[in-house]
Design brief:
Blueprint (H helix, E strand, L loop, with lengths): L5 E6 L3 H13 L1 E7 L6 H14 L7 E3 L13 H4 L21 H11 L3 E5 L4 H9 L3 H4 L3 E4 L14 H5 L1 H8 L5 E4 L1 H4 L6 H8 L4 H14 L8 H10 L6 E9 L10 E4 L27 E6 L2 H14 L3
Parallel strand pairs: 1-2, 1-4, 2-3, 4-5, 5-6, 6-9
Antiparallel strand pairs: 7-8, 7-9
Helix pairs in contact: 1-2, 1-12, 1-13, 4-5, 5-8, 10-11
Length: 322
């Protein structure tokens, strides 16, 4: 049997976070989940995480609430994308599952200071992780890898330059990206290659069990909101589950813009050495012109196998009813 990666997940559920958690609980060894204010406020993101693990009959996974606001600015939410509760139009009962009493950053510190074989997955603003690093700087040497859904090698979504998770707390993101921890970045340039459509909602509805119906309702809200539904966080977590979903990733140096009038929250990706001569390809897949740059602190996902991802997603949701 293939050994499962052990992960600690920091997230802000959120429609796409829910899909990511459902994938992770089937294919990874989830040792803990922490929540942060992001897609909606902390009360809802924590409640939503509790509900999803309870629905999946995985109440053994502890959940810890973290920060409800970024380090220096007011909380920006994405309720126009995820609904006021974070779960679209789905109305849920209050879960019996409750968060633990410990604060998320204390648990992140304790987890990674004591264990060597756990990866950190971040699916929301990076406030909790940055605060943990500030409180315990030795985490820079203790966290072996961060899989981060955030940023973009190309365009943003909150603004032309900035992706939402990074824009929500760019100072925190800068602390994390400058930490020296190996970061695998599943940014918008990658997740935009996925597109969920009404046919996918129907596939979920036809599975006819509780988790599939919940997933169908969530996806239906996204598909019918006049936006492309990408399920960004689920795309990110799939990289850990099946590396072949990412046919190409490139190492590069990434800085976080914290001061720009138009570029605040931008992941400034130095891909100059990948720029070739073909005007139809802004970013090549090999080094054309070596450039002296900073430490390549990020491996950025560039290409996405949508068919492979959808098979993984639907097979996983189906398995919950078996």
């Amino acid at each position: 049997m293939k050994k499962r990666n052990k992960v600690f997940i920091d997230c802000d559920p959120g429609i796409d976070d829910c899909f990511a958690l459902l994938l992770a609980m089937k294919h990874l060894e989830v040792v803990g989940i922490s929540t942060v204010g992001g897609n909606t406020g902390l009360f809802n993101t924590t409640r939503n995480a509790c509900y999803v693990v309870e629905l999946a009959k995985r109440t053994d996974i502890p959940i810890y609430a973290g920060y409800d606001k970024p380090m220096f600015t007011k909380l920006e939410t994405a309720e126009e994308v995820h609904g006021i509760s974070g779960l679209g139009a789905v109305e849920i009962r209050e879960p019996n599952k409750k968060p633990e009493k410990e604060h998320a950053i204390d648990v992140i510190i304790d987890t990674f200071m004591k264990q060597d074989d756990i990866l950190l997955v971040t699916l929301g603003p990076l406030t909790n992780v940055a605060q943990a690093i500030l409180k315990e700087p030795r985490l820079k040497k203790r966290i072996p890898q961060i899989l981060c859904m955030g940023g973009s090698v190309t365009a943003g979504n909150y603004s032309p330059c900035a992706e939402f998770n990074i824009y929500a707390d760019p100072e925190a993101a800068k602390i994390v990206f400058d930490s020296g921890i190996v970061i695998k970045m599943a940014g918008l340039n990658f997740t935009r290659q996925n597109s969920m459509i009404p046919k996918d909602v129907t596939i979920l509805k036809n599975m006819n069990h509780d988790i599939a119906q919940f997933a169908a309702q969530l996806l239906s809200f996204s598909v019918n909101s006049d936006r492309q539904s990408e399920l960004c966080d689920a795309c990110a977590i799939s990289w850990l589950i099946d590396p072949n979903i990412v046919p190409c990733s490139l190492p590069m140096h990434v800085d976080i813009e914290t001061k720009g009038e138009f570029t605040r929250g931008m992941t400034v990706c130095d891909y100059r050495e990948y720029i070739g001569t073909d005007p139809k390809m802004d970013i090549g897949r090999s080094v054309f012109y070596p450039v002296s740059q900073g430490v390549r602190n990020v491996v950025a996902a560039m290409e996405f196998d949508q068919d492979r991802f959808k098979k993984l997603l639907f097979d996983t949701i189906k398995s919950y009813g078996e």
